[in-house]
Design a protein that fits this description.
Blueprint lengths: L1 E6 L6 E5 L5 E17 L6 E20 L3 H12 L5 E8 L2 E16 L8 E10 L1 E2 L1
Antiparallel strand pairs: 1-2, 1-5, 3-4, 4-7, 5-6, 6-7, 6-8
C-alpha cells in the first residue's frame, strides 16, 4: 500500500506511507456519511427518506518506519505537525486499486509508538476529512 498527499499549495506529492519501502501503512478507518431527510407521509406506514447530499467522512491511518536516529523522529514529527490544516489531494494505492480523495483536510496527526520497537522507530497516525472518492 502507498499513500501520498499533495497539498494545494504544492505540486510535489509527499509520501506518507509505502509498504514497498518499509514505510508500513495500516488503514484504521475509512468511511463516510451523508445527510438524509426523513418525512412522515399522511396515511403512510413508513417514513419517506430523501437524500440531501453533504457526503463526507474520514480516513485514518498510521504509518511507521525507522529513522536514522531518535532525534530525527522528533524532527519528522514537527514536519508532519506543520501539515495540519492543509487541504489537498490524497492518493491511496492498494495493488491494482487507486483511490483518489480530492479536497481532503489533514485534521489530526499523532506520534505513536510500537511497544516492540524502540529508539529510532516511530509511527504517526493521520486523520483526514474526506469528501469525494474517485
Amino acid at each position: 500500500m502507498q499513500i501520498q498527499f499533495t497539498p494545494s499549495t504544492s505540486l510535489t506529492p509527499v509520501t506518507l506511507g509505502d509498504d514497498a519501502s518499509k514505510f508500513a501503512v495500516v488503514v484504521e478507518q475509512l468511511g463516510g456519511s451523508c445527510v438524509a431527510q426523513s418525512e412522515t407521509l399522511a396515511g403512510g406506514a413508513n417514513l419517506a427518506w430523501f437524500p440531501r447530499g453533504n457526503v463526507g467522512g474520514e480516513l485514518a491511518f498510521r504509518s511507521s518506519k525507522t529513522y536514522a536516529s531518535y532525534h530525527d523522529t522528533f524532527t519528522q514529527f514537527r514536519t508532519e505537525y506543520g501539515r495540519l490544516n492543509q487541504q489537498g489531494t490524497l492518493v491511496l494505492i492498494e495493488g491494482a486499486v487507486t483511490l483518489t480523495f480530492a479536497s481532503v483536510v489533514l485534521k489530526e496527526v499523532q506520534r505513536i509508538f510500537d511497544a516492540q520497537h524502540s529508539g529510532a522507530h516511530m509511527g504517526i497516525r493521520y486523520n483526514f476529512a474526506i469528501t469525494t472518492i474517485t
